[in-house]
C-alpha cells in the first residue's frame, strides 16, 4: 500500500465508504468516520437512509465565507434529530462547533449534537449545550433518538441567531483550521 502525504493528512490508499459505496481516500480521520458509521449501522439500529454523510455547510463571518462538511446528519423521521461532528483530539474543543452546526443545518434547533473523536464522544443537548452523556456507547440508538424527538421542541432559529452561530462556526472550523487542511474551503 502506497503512502503519501497531502496537506497534513497521511493518505494510506483508498477505502470504500460504508454508507455510499464510494471510494474515499484512506486517512486516519476517515477510518474514524467509518468506525462511527459502522457503530450507527450495526449497533445503533440506523439504516443507511437515516444517515446523510458529508453534508456541505457554508459558514460566514462578515464578508468571509468558508465551506465545510458535516460528518453525519441523522434523520430517522421527517426531521434531522442528531448531528455528529468528528474531530481528532479533545472533545471539549468540538462542543461549540457541533452546537453551531446543530443550529445551522436546518431552520430549527436539531435536538442532539454529538462531538466525537472516534474513540470517545460527548452527547450534547442542542438547545442548552449541556452534556447529556459521554462515551461512544451513549450515542442514542435509532429508537432512543425517535423517542427524544417526540418531545423535542424543534424551535426555529432566528436570523440573528443563525448569523451568530455562523460566525462561531467560521471561527472554529474555517479561520482556526490549519492552512494545509484540505477538508475546509475558504471562499
Brief description of this entry?
Helix content is 29%, strand content 29%.
Characterise the protein shown here.
The chain is an alpha+beta fold. The chain has a domain at 51-177: tt1808, chain A, CATH 3.90.1570. 29% of the residues lie in helices and 29% in strands. The protein has four helices and eleven strands; from the N terminus they run ββββαβββαβββααβ. It has helices at 28-43, 92-102, 142-151, 159-175, and strands spanning 4-6, 9-11, 14-16, 23-25, 51-61, 64-74, 82-86, 112-116, 121-125, 131-134, 185-186. Strands 5, 6, 7, 8, 9, 10 and 11 form a seven-stranded mixed β-sheet that branches. A hairpin with a 7-residue loop joins strand 6 (64-74) and strand 7. The termini are far apart. The model is unreliable at 1-7 (pLDDT under 50).
Task: Note the main attributes of this structure.
29% strand; disordered N terminus; 29% helix; tt1808, chain A; 11 strands; 187 residues; alpha+beta; globular; seven-stranded mixed sheet; 4 helices
Topology summary:
Elements: E1 4-6, E2 9-11, E3 14-16, E4 23-25, H1 28-43, E5 51-61, E6 64-74, E7 82-86, H2 92-102, E8 112-116, E9 121-125, E10 131-134, H3 142-151, H4 159-175, E11 185-186
Parallel strand pairs: 7-8
Antiparallel strand pairs: 1-2, 3-4, 5-6, 6-7, 6-11, 8-9, 9-10
Helix pairs in contact: 2-4
Amino acid at each position: 500500500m502506497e503512502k503519501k502525504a497531502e496537506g497534513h493528512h497521511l493518505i494510506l490508499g483508498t477505502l470504500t465508504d460504508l454508507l455510499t459505496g464510494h471510494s474515499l481516500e484512506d486517512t486516519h480521520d476517515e477510518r474514524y468516520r467509518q468506525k462511527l458509521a459502522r457503530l450507527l449501522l450495526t449497533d445503533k439500529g440506523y439504516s443507511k437512509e437515516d444517515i446523510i454523510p458529508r453534508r456541505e455547510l457554508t459558514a460566514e463571518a462578515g464578508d468571509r465565507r468558508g465551506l465545510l462538511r458535516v460528518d453525519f446528519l441523522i434523520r430517522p423521521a421527517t426531521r434531522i434529530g442528531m448531528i455528529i461532528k468528528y474531530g481528532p483530539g479533545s472533545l471539549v474543543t468540538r462542543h461549540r462547533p457541533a452546537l453551531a452546526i446543530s443550529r445551522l443545518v436546518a431552520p430549527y434547533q436539531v435536538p442532539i449534537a454529538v462531538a466525537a473523536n472516534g474513540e470517545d464522544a460527548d452527547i450534547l443537548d442542542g438547545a442548552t449545550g449541556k452534556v447529556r452523556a459521554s462515551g461512544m456507547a451513549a450515542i442514542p440508538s435509532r429508537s432512543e433518538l425517535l423517542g427524544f424527538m417526540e418531545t423535542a421542541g424543534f424551535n426555529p432559529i432566528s436570523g440573528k441567531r443563525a448569523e451568530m452561530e455562523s460566525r462561531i462556526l467560521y471561527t472554529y472550523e474555517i479561520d482556526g483550521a490549519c492552512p494545509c487542511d484540505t477538508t475546509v474551503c475558504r471562499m
